[in-house]
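Aggregate trends can hide what the representation actually does to any particular protein. This step matters because it turns folding into a mapping between discrete strings. For completeness, the protein is quoted in full, as a sequence line and a line of structure tokens:
=====
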Amino acid sequence: MKRAAQSKQTEAAKRMLELRKGKQDLLDKQLVEQKKLITKIESKKEAGEEMKPEEKALIMKLIKSLGESIMKTKDDLQKMIHASTNKLSPAEVI
């Protein structure tokens, strides 16, 4: 009985770590993409090239959307860290 409970706890901890790693990877990718978009705008500006208003609006929209996703992912990671320090199960976090 005790062994089964420990096994469930261990499995839950593994799932939590995998989920956290996945969220961290997602966050890293989102940040890289956001930096690429910002660099694209800055490089065109420095080169003296004019961007079409539609292109600039689309890039700005993508940057904003990525920013919102980054904040959500950060919040999710913080909740997961809080949950792991308080020994909550993955189901209680989500």
Notes: Helices lie at 2-46, 53-85, 90-93.
